[in-house]
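[recover] target loaded
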């Protein structure tokens, strides 16, 4: 694990409450896996908020990396106010990332809300390895969807909204449709109710696709010291930060 004072290169709002911050840091950008995360100290003196906040890698490019984040509270509001040239203390890379299949395949990637962040990183790396990728994103409404131009152009991007303002109406897990049969592997990141629905949809004929999920439990430390992120799985109690955040869907929602 590396602790760095990373320099903010840019920090922009790209859609409703969705910000993308690019940082310069060779040490934090190199050797990462999709689904790994960093912990960001969202204050200058480390006093408030006291704990660093967890964010998945969204994009990685040489010695730069980006985070996609929603401004939901004190820490993320602070982060949204950083400007080019500011320095932010960050540690990582942390956790276990998603695993690619050995052979080229059809990958179905599913993102719920801001859980789409590591899904974009996964999509970029998957197309670079020659996989076919369909990325589905579910959001409350059209303005809360990640814009299409944030995805690699090789990806088929399918959107679902709860109010029907873009794509079919409902939850993303209601609309896997033909993509479920098409997929040789499935990966997902989003809120826990989305994983529960996904498990229900895939329980009977989706096990062969060995779905992997990224769990975003609250993480005070991020590296196995506080036990604040423990979850029950079929393989016993696991720490989301250290044993995950990647888990087999049916180990958690079996
Ligand atoms: C491994 C991991 C990866 C993550 N990746 C991203 C990402 O790429 N982009 C992103 O926007 N967010 C991500 N999150 C969630 C992010 O850590 C929280 O949004 C952040 O901690 C909120 O901090 P805050 O100080 O702004 O909000 P707070 O003031 O602490 O809380 C505001 C609200 O957010 C809820 N909240 C706080 N922390 C979390 C959390 N860890 N998970 C879920 N809800 C939380 C609180 O219950 C409260 O309702 C990730 C979390 C984890 C554990
Ligand atoms: S966040 Fe502290 S042990 Fe996982």
């Amino acid at each position: 694990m590396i602790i760095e004072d990373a320099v903010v290169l840019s920090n922009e709002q790209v859609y409703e409450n969705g910000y993308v911050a690019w940082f310069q840091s060779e040490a934090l950008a190199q050797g990462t896996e999709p689904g790994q995360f960093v912990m960001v100290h969202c204050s200058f003196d480390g006093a408030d908020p006291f704990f660093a906040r967890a964010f998945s890698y969204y994009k990685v490019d040489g010695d730069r990396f980006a985070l996609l984040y929603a401004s939901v509270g004190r820490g993320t509001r602070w982060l949204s106010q950083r400007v080019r040239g500011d320095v932010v203390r960050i540690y990582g890379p942390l956790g276990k990332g998603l695993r690619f299949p050995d052979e080229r395949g059809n990958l179905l990637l599913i993102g719920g809300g801001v859980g789409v962040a590591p899904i974009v990183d996964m999509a970029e790396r998957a197309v670079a390895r020659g996989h076919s990728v369909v990325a589905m994103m579910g959001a409350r409404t059209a303005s809360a969807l990640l814009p299409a131009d944030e995805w690699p152009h090789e990806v088929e991007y399918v959107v679902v909204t709860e109010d029907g303002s873009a794509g079919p109406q409902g939850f993303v897990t209601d609309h896997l449709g033909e993509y479920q049969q098409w997929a040789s592997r499935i990966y997902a990141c989003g809120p826990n109710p989305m994983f529960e629905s996904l498990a229900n949809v895939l329980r009977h004929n989706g096990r062969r696709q060995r779905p992997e999920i990224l769990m975003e439990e609250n993480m005070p430390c991020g590296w196995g010291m506080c036990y604040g992120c423990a979850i029950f799985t079929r393989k016993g109690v696991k720490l989301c930060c250290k044993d995950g955040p990647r888990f087999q869907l049916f180990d958690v929602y079996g």
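[recover] notes: The mean pLDDT is 96.
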